[in-house]
Specification:
The structure holds two protein chains of two kinds. Chain A contains two helices and no strands. By secondary structure, chain A is an all-alpha fold. By secondary structure, chain B is of the alpha/beta class. The two termini of chain B are 31 Å apart. The chains are: A mainly alpha, B alpha/beta. At the A-B interface, helix 1 and helix 2 of A face helix 1 and helix 3 of B.
Chain lengths: 44, 329
C-alpha cells in the first residue's frame, strides 16, 4: 500500500507490478522514511 | 510518531511539547495545489545499502537530519550515496514557517551537551569530506544556539581535520555576534536562506523572520569573513513573479552572496502553503542564466534542488551535475 502511494508520483498509470527492481528500491526506501499513514503531500 | 497526525500537538522523547510538522491543522480548508504534478517531478533512484548505512549511523548517534524532518524528496538519493544534512539542537523549532514541516514548539533552553562529539563521530563514520550542518531555530536560547553550533564545528574539525563544513544557520534574530561565533569556528560556507521574494516573506516565513534581516545577516557574514563563501536559497512556486525573482536575485547579489540555489517548492503536508506553480526545467535554466549574469559564483537551479543538495559539488560550476550521468549516482 505504501508502495502505491509513492509510485503515483512517478508513474501513476503503470501497474505497480511492472516496476523495475530499482523502482522497488525507491519505494522501499521512501516507505521506511515516511510512514504509510502519513506520506509527504508531494508523494500523493 | 506515526500515530500523531500532521498539525497535532505531541510530546517529544525529550519532553518538549510540539506541533507535528510545524503547522496546525487547518480544519479541512485545504487550498489545492495549482494542478497535478508535472512529469519532470520524479524521485531519484537510491542505493538501498547506502541508505540503510546512513540511517543506522543517524539512529545510533541519536542525531536528527533535515532530510527526514523536512520530508525532503531527495532523501533516497542523498542517503543512498552516503551523505546527510545534520540538524543540530533537536527536532523542535521555535518558529513556524508555513512551508516547513519541522515540528514547532519551545524546547525551553534544553541543549544536549553530548551532541558535538556524536556529530563529529557520525561525520567520521560517513566518511564525509564536506558536511552541511543546519539547525532548528532556537529563539529560546540567549545566543540562538550559536555557541553550540561552534562547538559542533570545532568537534568535527578535531575529529575530521580534512572535512569542510557548511553552516546553514537560523537568522539569530539578526544578532551579528552570534553569526560571528559560528563563522569564527571555521566554516567554508555560511548559508542563511532567504526562502522567497520580499512580498511573500511574511506569508511564507515565520513572522519573526525578515527579508531585510536575512540579507543583513548574509552581508555581515561576508564582511566578517570575506574568505568564507556565502550562500542562500530560494523556493520557487509560491506565487512570485519573474520580476520579483529578478529583484530578489539582485538584492542577494548586492549583499555579497556568492552562491544561490533555486528549487521547486513542494508542499510537505496538506496544512502547508499550496503550490502556486510548477516551474519547468527550461524556466529553471533561464533563471540560472539570469543569476549567473548578475555575478554569482555559482547558481544551482532545478526542480528538486534544495539548499544543501549536492553542496559539495557546488563549485564544480556545472549546476551541481544535474542532468548528467555522473549526477545520477
Amino acid at each position: 500500500m505504501t508502495h502505491r502511494h509513492h509510485a503515483q508520483g512517478r508513474d501513476a498509470a503503470r501497474p505497480a507490478d511492472d516496476q523495475t527492481e530499482e523502482e522497488d528500491r525507491v519505494d522501499q526506501t521512501l516507505a521506511e522514511s515516511f510512514p504509510a499513514s502519513d506520506p509527504p503531500y508531494w508523494c500523493l | 510518531m506515526a500515530a500523531i497526525k500532521s498539525g497535532e500537538k505531541y510530546v517529544t522523547e525529550d519532553g518538549v511539547r510540539a506541533v507535528r510538522h510545524g503547522v496546525k491543522r487547518n480544519g479541512g480548508a485545504t487550498t489545492p495545489d495549482v494542478g497535478p504534478k508535472p512529469p519532470w517531478l520524479r524521485v531519484r533512484v537510491p542505493d538501498g545499502a547506502g541508505y540503510r548505512a546512513v540511517r543506522e549511523i543517524v539512529n545510533t548517534h541519536r542525531l536528527h537530519t533535515v532530510c527526514q524532518e523536512s520530508r525532503c524528496p531527495n532523501i533516497a538519493e542523498c542517503w543512498g550515496r552516503g551523505t546527510a544534512t545534520l540538524m543540530l539542537m533537536g527536532e523542535v523549532c521555535t518558529r513556524a514557517c508555513r512551508f516547513c514541516s519541522v515540528a514547532t514548539g519551545n524546547p525551553r533552553g534544553r541543549l544536549d551537551p553530548g551532541e558535538p562529539l556524536r556529530v563529529a563521530e557520525a561525520v567520521a563514520l560517513m566518511g564525509l569530506r564536506y558536511v552541511v550542518l543546519t539547525s532548528v531555530d532556537r529563539d529560546d536560547l540567549p545566543d540562538g544556539g550559536a555557541a553550540h553550533y561552534a562547538a559542533c564545528i570545532r568537534a568535527i574539525h578535531a575529529r575530521c581535520p580534512s572535512t569542510a563544513v557548511e553552516a546553514l544557520t537560523p537568522d539569530f534574530s539578526g544578532d551579528t555576534r552570534a553569526v560571528a561565533t559560528v563563522l569564527d569556528a571555521g566554516v567554508q560556507t555560511y548559508a542563511q536562506n532567504l526562502e522567497t521574494v520580499e512580498r511573500l516573506t511574511h506569508r511564507v516565513r515565520d513572522p519573526r523572520a525578515g527579508y531585510r534581516r536575512t540579507l543583513e545577516v548574509l552581508a555581515f557574514a561576508k564582511r566578517h569573513a570575506p574568505e568564507t563563501l556565502t550562500k542562500t536559497s530560494l523556493m520557487l512556486g509560491l506565487g512570485e513573479t519573474d520580476a520579483e525573482l529578478e529583484q530578489t536575485l539582485r538584492d542577494v547579489r548586492a549583499a555579497g552572496v556568492d552562491v544561490v540555489t533555486l528549487g521547486q517548492y513542494l508542499r510537505p503536508t496538506a496544512n502547508h502553503l499550496p503550490v502556486a506553480r510548477y516551474v519547468t526545467p527550461a524556466q529553471f535554466a533561464a533563471y540560472r542564466a539570469l543569476a549567473l549574469s548578475l555575478g554569482f559564483v555559482e547558481v544551482v537551479a532545478g526542480t528538486l534542488v534544495r539548499s544543501s543538495y549536492r553542496a559539495e559539488r557546488v563549485l564544480d560550476r556545472n549546476n551541481a551535475g544535474l542532468g548528467t550521468a555522473a549526477g545520477s549516482t
